[in-house]
Amino acid sequence: MLRIELSPDCHATLKPQPFNSQAFGFSSAQLADVAADNEASAAALLEQVDVAVRERGYRHVVLRIPAYHRVLHAALVRAGYYFAESSISLSLAGLNVRDYSKLAGRVRLVVADSTQLPELVHIASQDFHHGRFLEDPFLDQALARRRHALWLEELAKTGELYAALAGDQLVGFHAEHDLRNGCADLILTGAAQRYSMLAPAIWASALMSLKARDVRTCTTMVSAANLGVLNLYQRLGFRFDETWYGFHRFFDVP
Question: How does pLDDT run across 112-127, given as a tens digit for each residue?
Answer without folding.
Answer: 999 999 999 999 888 8
